[in-house]
Amino acid sequence: MVQKRKRPPVPRIDAPVPPKRRGRPRAYEPGVALGKALDLFRKDGFAATSLDDLSAATGMNRPSLYGAFGDKRELFIKSYRRYRDDARVAMGDIFRNELPIRKRLERIYAVALDIYLSGESGPRGCFTVMTAASEAVHDPDIRAMVLEGFAELDRAFAACFRRAQEKGELPASADPTLLAQLASATIHTIAIRARAQVPRKELETIVNGAIEVMVGAAK
Amino acid sequence: MVQKRKRPPVPRIDAPVPPKRRGRPRAYEPGVALGKALDLFRKDGFAATSLDDLSAATGMNRPSLYGAFGDKRELFIKSYRRYRDDARVAMGDIFRNELPIRKRLERIYAVALDIYLSGESGPRGCFTVMTAASEAVHDPDIRAMVLEGFAELDRAFAACFRRAQEKGELPASADPTLLAQLASATIHTIAIRARAQVPRKELETIVNGAIEVMVGAAK
DNA sequence: GGAATTCTTTGCGAAATGGTACAAAAAAGG
DNA sequence: CCTTTTTTGTACCATTTCGCAAAGAATTCC
After folding, report:
1. Dihedral of the CA atoms B182, B187, B189, B190 (nearest 10)?
2. Phi, psi of A126, deg, nearest 5
């Protein structure tokens, strides 16, 4: 007995080290594949995206897709989760920051426009809004996710306005919940209009006007 | 020669009289068939609606559908035109009426909610918004129609606010164009949320808040 | 090296899809 | 009654769609 069998390396919490899986190694990275799937779904929507399209975009053939993510609907749901997670990190800092309310709103909408207008073949809009318009009607699970998405945005905006009110940036008479609904409505209208290829300039005009009404006129 | 061949009946302008067409008579009424097609497209969207579905709903078989309306895309476009025409007549009176601005907005949103929440199997939302989210991205013709729809609504709202301003219901400092964009944004947000089955009560809360901001706070 | 495991590849198949060809049917014209 | 015109009904075609089964390849475990 020369030496005890080499112990498996102590798994560090944040180790990106491949954990020595057992069989044939994957030919794809689940993360990037899911990203490609999300891109496609955002571009064409659920119904108009075929498994062949998804297969081509991810580089995985259909059985692999199926094995990794389940059927088309499950893949769509996982793509949506990914979108929400991405959006959360993109927005999170700004929502949490302690900037003046006006500055904060400006940054939020700027990031939103970046997200909605990105896309090589046309602006991709807001996936939550797109999904609400299509799949959410007939699929209860998807509907629940979309509703949670709306609610989360409403809450985040409301927290912003409440904080601003506490800091005296808004009059005591202002209603944070109401303002939040207006802020969300502005998000929704630019998301939709972006999808119809309204140019960024016009969307920014809408945003600036809305900000003016929300924090300018009320001050 | 007893009598000159009976002249074709003088065509009264609004005569619903069948004009004695030449061949086999139609087994459907184009108007109602188009209405059924519109219902389907609003429920499921373009991609998820098959010609079989359309055939079943209209009672026309596919060749007849094709002959009457052209291919699926043309049928979709004609359905959309029909939707816009219907919406115009439903909204037209209210927009033209000389009611106090607040009353007017209340009525407009009430009618909008009726349109968006109707539908036997779930609320059908706003067809313009739905189409903007899906087909408008890749189809220039459809995109043009959607953009015109947005613009028309913006203009109608702006005219409302301008008129209210002239009548002294709004301060001279108010910006009708800006207010119109807010009013449209409110339309868009309730259209989307309706589609996600947010109950009417909540949508009315959003509407009331928006009206308050637009004409209440500004007064 | 052989067994076990995990993923990939090929290919199939049953169903659905958009669109059309063609004959039969129903009406008017003569 | 025969022709012409227009619409219907049936049947079909080529393609696409989703999903899966079965065999092959790459890797670890013993």
Report:
1. 140
2. -100, 120
Superfamily of structural domain A80-216: Tetracycline Repressor, domain 2 (1.10.357.10)
How far lies B140's CA from each of A6, A125, B87, B128, B143, in Å? 64, 17, 22, 14, 5
**pLDDT tens for each residue of B2-54:** 444 444 444 444 445 556 788 899 999 999 999 999 999 999 999 999 999 99
CA separation for the pair A82, A34 (Å, rounded): 8
B148-193: pLDDT as tens digits: 999 999 999 999 999 999 999 999 999 999 999 999 999 999 999 9
* Inter-chain touch B147–A198, beta carbons under 8 Å: yes
CA dist A154 and A45 (Å) reads 25
Residue ranges per domain, chain A?
80-216
- Is strand C within 7 Å of residue B51 (CB)? yes
Mark which residues 160-219 of B lie under 8 Å from A by CB.
175, 178, 181-182, 184-186, 188-189, 192-193, 195-198, 205-206, 209-210, 212-213, 217-218
Q: How far, in Å, are A125, B41, B48, B204 from residue B35 at the CA level?
A: 29, 10, 18, 28
